[in-house]
Amino acid sequence: MTILVTGATGAVGRHLVPTLLERGAAVRALTRKPADAALPEAVDVVGGDLSDASSLGPEVFDGVDRAFVFPAPGVEAFVEAAVAAGVHRLTVLSSLAVAEEFPRDRGSASQVHHGAVEAAVTARTDAWTILRPGTFATNLLAWAWQIRSGAPIRAPYLDSAQAPVHEDDVAEAAAVALLGDDLVGEAIPLTGPAALTRREQVRTIGDALGREIPLVEISAEEFRAETAGYVPEAVTAMLLAYWSDTVATPDVPRPVTPVTGRPGRTLAQWAGDHRIDLGG
Ligand SMILES: NC(=O)c1ccc[n+]([C@@H]2O[C@H](COP(=O)([O-])OP(=O)(O)OC[C@H]3O[C@@H](n4cnc5c(N)ncnc54)[C@H](OP(=O)(O)O)[C@@H]3O)[C@@H](O)[C@H]2O)c1
Description:
The chain is of the alpha/beta class. The chain has helices spanning 13-22, 58-61, 76-84, 109-122, 144-149, 167-179, 198-209, 220-227, 233-248, 257-260, 267-273; strands at residues 2-6, 26-31, 44-47, 64-69, 89-93, 128-133, 153-155, 161-162, 187-190, 196-197, 215-217. It has a domain at 2-137 and 165-191 and 253-264: Rossmann fold. The protein has 11 helices and 11 strands. The strands form 3 sheets. A 7-stranded parallel β-sheet has the order 3-2-1-4-5-6-9, with helices on both faces. β1, α1 (13-22) and β2 (26-31) form a beta-alpha-beta unit. The longest helix is centred in the C-terminal third of the chain and has 16 residues, at 233-248. The chain is globular. The N and C termini lie far apart (40 Å). The structure holds NADP nicotinamide-adenine-dinucleotide phosphate. NADP nicotinamide-adenine-dinucleotide phosphate binds at residues 6-13, 31-33, 49-51, 70-72, 93, 95, 133, 135-136, 138-139, 167.
């Protein structure tokens, strides 16, 4: 069985690839920069752009049964080419926003983008599995510079509580979906095992690094002003709506355990795994 992994050089893909290899699958990885991929030797690395059908030559799909679909902008081109080449079994990285569990989700940047990716897949094959993670713990790496330098983190809604998911748990759920047959036709929400306030998230990272991280609460207005120019407005709006909602209504954890058979990794584990990225 050859499994094609897109997004193989990303945070999820870098754990998915070795997990599939350990479990006996042959893995082909698609990247725009094969020379820089630095993937395990057993992987067949091919070049291609998910948004450009003309870059997806026969070497990409030859002998492939199943694929992990990374939701890059324009990935519809890849989905169409994969199905035309006979790859019907697709596991898609999507987002919990598509479930529209809260009014804030409808029309949000994530719901619009990932909803279109899901639709591109489900319109072309019945053999899909959709993974819908909530907020990734890796989003906290946005504070890596402040954490390393000792500058205070300036953030709004510090008493809001989210359940960030470890990228390795998303990868392991993807491996289960790709290797077995039990999850076909399922859209699966995935979060971390516990909701923590943003204050607690920063404290958890500080504990892993053995030092206190200075934190200053700012208003939504200040956040908007400080991120203008480098965070798209629609993303800022989505983040502020998420954080303000989760002050009164914390994230309800949707653990990965029923899929992976293992407890979800805690934020403390995540922080330990990323000590170096965080300057520890
Ligand atoms: N952040 C969140 O809270 C959250 C929540 C729910 C869902 N998600 C989804 O999860 C994604 C992040 O996953 P991640 O952390 O594993 O990603 P990541 O670390 O940002 O890596 C991005 C990967 O996508 C590949 N890629 C991007 N555009 C491509 C293209 N046009 N053609 C081929 N490959 C392309 C890159 O490959 P090369 O550079 O090697 O080509 C790389 O492997 C988000 O983009 C979002 O869709 C995120």
